[in-house]
Design brief:
Length: 384
């Protein structure tokens, strides 16, 4: 169990340092921004918290004082929570009211740190076994210390969650909205950490052994801090990540359309504006061209499409009506390609019309639909 707890501290510390280093690269252009300075301070406190946690797992003394690493970890955790609350206030509003509330949280943070320090030394924290600060050991002062610490962590989680949800709705799909939603998730996970720690302390004080479930607190802590680190940096890397995901989706669609496009191109080479190539440097343009060329190739096939064909498309077609329709379209295309190669024109052909009333003005929907048709076309080819 000690190994897993140490690993959780290390994961939380590494994610904190990664977030801090990433944000420090922006120091030149952002240092005058109050919200940015608050963010850097928060990440510094976050790093200190989990560095001390990892240190405490390996040594009972810090600077020659027993359990001092635990005290520093708890004090910096309180400061870190207060600082995160202040960041949210700056994100939400830059008014005088937010400044007043930030000072209010600072006073609370200082008072809590002073109370924890007093309880630590009154309870003879330096002389107690380090395990007492995990279980409480049934000693009233240690129990009080731990419960005060957990309350100091739980309350900011609740207030952050209450503030994030409405502001995230107002921010919509912007990078700030994404950060607020992720911050909400982090607040929920860290609140679960607080509950798990309280359960660990109270069950130990009552003489109950919950076994491996005591690790839940460490897991929630690491998961919550990783999520929080992402939330505090997503406004910088979020847009780039979104573009990368859009490129990946576009490339996947571009590749998925290839078998259908290839056969249509071989049947009607004049549909291609430029010679085929493997480069995808201008993927958006190439994807548009591929969709247009598939449509043009299909129109070239209209005299050869038998309106009575479509039953073969039901081979392997399961699921929604749209999926069955995609298989029917794919089957008609296969039949039409064969008819064109053999020179047979069906009596009941589709010399006019389009792909089943699909809205070709919506490019995204068009790509999705043609990808389904191409997938069905590929599956029909394999079934033969």
């Amino acid at each position: 169990m000690t190994t897993i707890k140490t690993l959780c501290f290390v994961i939380a510390a590494l994610s904190s340092y990664a977030a801090l280093i990433y944000r420090l690269f922006q120091v030149r252009r952002s240092w005058r921004d109050t919200a940015y300075r608050a963010l850097v301070i928060t990440l510094l406190l976050q790093c200190l918290t989990f560095t001390m946690g990892a240190f405490a797992m390996g040594s009972e003394r810090f600077l020659g004082v027993g359990n001092l690493a635990i005290l520093v970890m708890h004090l910096s955790a309180v400061a870190f929570c207060v600082s995160a609350q202040i960041i949210l206030l700056h994100w939400a509003s830059a008014t005088e009211e937010s400044g007043r509330r930030a000072r209010y949280w600072l006073i609370i943070g200082v008072a809590l740190d002073a109370l924890l320090t007093a309880l630590f030394f009154i309870a003879d924290g330096p002389g107690r076994p380090a395990e007492d600060f995990n279980t409480g050991s049934g000693r009233p002062l240690i129990l009080t210390y731990l419960l005060v610490f957990m309350v100091s962590q739980a309350i900011p989680c609740v207030t952050i969650l209450r503030q994030c949800v409405p502001y995230a709705r107002m921010a919509g799909k912007t990078s700030l909205g994404q950060a607020l939603r992720m911050l909400s998730v982090a607040a929920v996970i860290l609140f679960l950490y607080c509950l798990a720690r309280v359960v660990n302390v109270l069950t130990a004080a009552g003489g109950l052994d919950i076994g491996g479930w005591t690790l839940a607190a460490s897991v929630f802590s690491a998961l919550g801090i990783v999520t929080l680190s992402l939330a505090l940096t997503i406004s910088s890397w979020g847009p780039s990540a979104t573009k990368l995901l859009e490129w990946a989706r576009g490339y996947r669609s571009y590749r998925a359309l290839y078998p259908l496009w290839r056969d249509l191109y071989e049947s009607s080479p004049d549909i291609v504006l430029e010679p085929p190539g493997a480069a995808v440097s201008d993927l958006n343009y190439r994807l548009h061209r591929r969709v247009i060329e598939i449509r043009d190739g299909w129109r070239e096939l209209r005299p050869y499409i038998d309106r009575t064909t479509g039953g073969d498309g039901q081979v392997g077609a399961k699921g929604s009506e749209e999926s069955r329709q995609a298989f029917a379209e794919a089957a008609q295309i296969r039949q039409a390609l064969h008819a064109k190669r053999t020179g047979i024109i069906p009596d009941d052909n589709a010399d006019t019309g389009d792909f089943e009333d699909r809205d070709t003005d919506n490019f995204t929907a068009e790509v999705v639909w043609l990808t389904k048709v191409a997938s069905a076309y590929r599956r029909l080819a394999k079934a033969r």
